[in-house]
Design brief:
Length: 161
């Protein structure tokens, strides 16, 4: 585990909230429906349901097995739910009452957080030192320092001490 503490650069609160709301309102109810269907057919996931169907009928295609055993509605709805969810939410991401778990919320927030790189942190320290040094100059002499068109700080050639 990475024990190094990173300095946060920015956090996109809006995108984080939009994604969390979409997961909670759109996908969590679908996952709850998927759980109920899987419980009804006695399987843990779609793959285990397909394997169980194929073992009972000795067919190769799960959809034919589902039709033969009278589970075609459940099978087609489970495949549709699997396609809609597309790995956005997993069963362990949602609690039994249909709310997103804290682990998933932290994962989404981390996804929308940007951290400083080592190079940026070094540059920030240099900038802070330059600001501190500039602020130590008495007010009447600050006009003597300019930044030229090459981005270099120089003495103002048009202003004399």
């Amino acid at each position: 585990m990475n024990t190094e503490v990173k300095e946060k650069k920015s956090f996109n609160d809006h995108r984080s909230n939009v994604e969390l709301e979409e997961l909670q309102k759109k996908f969590a109810p679908l996952l709850m429906e998927q759980r109920q269907l899987l419980k009804k057919v006695g399987a843990t996931d779609l793959l285990s349901f397909e394997v169980a169907l194929n073992e009972r009928t000795q067919f190769v295609k799960a959809s034919l097995s589902a039709e033969a055993l009278g589970y075609e509605n459940e099978y087609y709805r489970l495949t549709e739910l699997e396609r809609i969810l597309e790995g956005r939410l997993k069963d362990e991401d949602v609690s039994t009452d249909g709310k997103l778990k804290l682990k998933k919320i932290k994962e989404i927030k981390e996804k929308h957080t940007t951290y400083y790189t080592e190079q940026e942190l070094e540059a920030l320290k240099l900038i802070e030192n330059a600001i501190v040094s500039y602020n130590k100059i008495p007010y009447q002499y600050k006009a003597k320092v300019i930044i030229d068109n090459r981005g270099q700080m120089i003495m103002n050639p048009f202003n004399r001490l």
